């Protein structure tokens, strides 16, 4: 299969094409052509979304749509979503679970994947952390986002094929003068402030923005052993759970003849305090502070002559400094400093010939990570017991080619993408005499094939992909203490097949997809009898899934939406405890229904209700039942309802949102009682 | 207790061992407390605390070697999986450890019905005290050893109200290592012998390094610490040992002797620091029985636990489990506690997989927790006949601590 993909992608190298695909954030992977009629339906569909009745203009002529790939435009979320997680959880096939409270970790699953298997891009930069594999989904405030692209199985454009799909955040990039101010207040002390100015010039634009978001997160929590009297269990407002974030950005773009330039700068500082869930102690001062700066530069050269139509260069630098303070009683603190630095260079070309387009690419990335920890003012010595301070580096080169075919007369298009990854990782323990530097080198390949065909009013898509997640540096090297490394770790791999259909009619839109995903080499932390841990490849899994989305426009003012998502999973493992189980961390059944109603030109509302069942918190599928307030059923099962009311007049807008409307009790990502009902009121002014 | 005499407990055992005729002959007599029915020994009923290999969940399984049955899925824990078990007669105590700090009580007769769940935290305790075990002085008095605290709780296990659970405490603060600012001498186990409570302590520094091992001794009747005069050079009342790092389940008693097993520092390579030491519970004299170098050709395995059948027959198991996360291999050895000599290797066909726990029941059957990825479970070894009893009792999760029911 690998040989076939390489041949297909290189077959027509050197041919010319008169069919230009102009690159833009939302279209760089132009494959599925949407004709004018479909575009107007999409605009009309967006008219009936809860808050926006403006026509959405997708900047480029080539557009994706379907069950496998979606674009969410700014207007769909800007006025009612607190975070990116809020936006994504409305997408069928995406599951968001999180630890309750603003600023806490959020887990994303796309078609049954784990969060580490999902790739997060900000513009063209892969954000996934090489040390631990995760990412902060809410790194960019929604106010700074122009659009969000979601691909559920395949890469977006170029790059290595993921196991769990791609989420790509396209940062603010408007082509109109704009002054926007918004403020929000919400439950548990939530406050938000946004200010943005976008100025256009003859050849470019400049946007500057500031965002402040904070919350006390002092929702009522069932504390089993309260601090003042350990024998008493009761609901108390959670203490030391505050979150505070300030971010600033500058986006500039300009055009000089055939050259387009873009320069982004983002800076943010956030602090998340860490509560003591056991006793809610008021003495606890633990926190995690993160200082992040990101610079991105891109240059697009458009060539009107010759076989090379365009050449794109992107440079990114992302610097993150984190400080962890751990002290449950306010004394003898553990302080950890963690510094990450990521640099990326991306080169990508576009070669077109007749019905073919080729995008060769080269991505070079380096990430470094270092840690420095003290306890009670003393530097931890590295004695193989506690975690050691380390320096780690990963260098990765990804190259490949994407070939696209678009039939001129038939409604058929196809693509093939091949990527080769070469990576080098190394790690050394600090504060350890005679520390040895350990390194690891490996190479892998990934590939995708997809086809798209319009028949009658139905768009059909079929895809095959071979995806990959390489082991993180922590999984490879451990903490050089009691958590050991395992350099023999194989990457997690997947082979996925999917078939999707998208039916468009005047009042109906029906999307469906079925997929089969074979996962191999799941990487899991295993502990021996002395509690010494390390990551191992422990299991494989087979997932079968089906998604269905139905939108029915009853009238100009009333739209109904229905989503259903089913996953069947089964694991195989040499570990009896993990064999013949269902994958943890994902709901195997999700249903949602939504009613959007425009009561008047100014007033609209949307009510959504979602049922999520069959989630297991662990690989053994052990469920602790009979947990009192959660009844005798699975404690993760939830039925959540949400109400949004929007009012707009001229450039003013007020949105009221109530999450978990009926105050449903369930367990969150950390298997703890989730936050209950919350309210947010947002006011915005937007002048153009 | 002699392995050849036992009080009458269980009718099923009579029938299962083919002594119906003996039982019928005796049926006309009243069974009084003075009457001892001599029966061949048989393994006890037991329960085992099990854990997922990734520690994401745990549960307790009830074992019956005669029926060759395993009844699992009791006391399932998801997020807070760190638990252990202790029994007293037919009472079961499910101890929630780090970050949980609870003791939940059940009975063998009603295994699903929780009698109570009480905290092991004092009020205004900001950090977890991490209870490791309970040691019973009587049905209404027990000691809770808390690894994260310099205070041992004295509790009444029969308390009907939580306010009546804690009835006192013992102070171990004198044993905190000078390089420890966390306020605990890391007590890991305890046993009652000769009317005295013996508590072994790791005495870790802030960097998790064990320092000189001490065993504190308290009078069970008065709860006062006893001056053992073990070392004239120190200002501590307890008994100083030569070995380092007594782990969980490290302290046993046989007759008037107390045995402490130490396992050397986790990363350490000096096998002479892994010892079995004998304490005379009357005189507090200490004698080294053996250390890990007594095992022939041993280069890295440390002694993890030991059990004692008699003054001439005992068992230990040794593992080299710290050096890598891969499944470690453990071997059980038989040894003579009087001479300190290893008398048999690879007992119970050991030496091919990981062992996480061993213990003897009241009839001196050796129960072994075998951590095998594909076939985790509990083996039972007859220490008299020197042969396995039945086949492995397979559990779903990895077995750990085994306790016995009466």
Can you describe what's shown?
In chain A, 5% of the residues lie in helices and 53% in strands. Chain A has 688 residues and is mainly beta. In chain A, the strands form 4 sheets. Chain A has a 22-stranded antiparallel β-barrel. A 5-stranded mixed β-sheet of chain A has the order 1-6-7-4-5, with no helix packed on it. The longest helix of chain A has 12 residues, at 36-47. Chain A is globular. The relative contact order of chain A is 0.13. By secondary structure, chain B is mainly beta. Chain B is 3% helix and 41% strand. In chain B, strands 24, 25, 26, 27 and 28 form a 5-stranded antiparallel β-sheet that branches. In chain B, strands 3-2-1-29 form a 4-stranded antiparallel β-sheet, with no helix packed on it. The radius of gyration of chain B is 21 Å and the shape is globular. Chains A and B meet through β24, β26 and β27 of A and β3 and β24 of B.
- What is the number of domains of chain A? 1
Extended strand count of chain B: 29
- What Rg of chain A is obtained from the alpha carbons, in whole angstroms? 25 Å
What does the overall shape of chain A look like?
globular
Structural class assignment of chain A: mainly beta
Second-tier CATH architecture of chain A: Beta Barrel
How much helicity do the residues of chain A have? under 10%
CATH level-four homologous superfamily name of chain A: TonB-dependent receptor, beta-barrel domain
CATH top level of the domain at 186-352 in chain B?
Answer: Mainly Beta
Distinct helical segment count of chain A: 4
CATH superfamily of the domain at 186-352 in chain B: YVTN repeat-like/Quinoprotein amine dehydrogenase
Low-confidence stretches of chain A: 1-64
- Give the low-pLDDT segments of chain B: 1-32
The CATH topology label of chain A is Maltoporin, Chain A
- What oligomerization state is this entry in? heterodimer
What CATH architecture label of the domain at 186-352 in chain B applies?
7 Propeller
Average pLDDT reading of chain B: 89
Number of helices of chain B: 2
| Beta-strand residue fraction of chain B | 35-45%
Percent range of helical residues of chain B: under 10%
Judged by helices, strands and strand pairing, the structural class of chain B is mainly beta
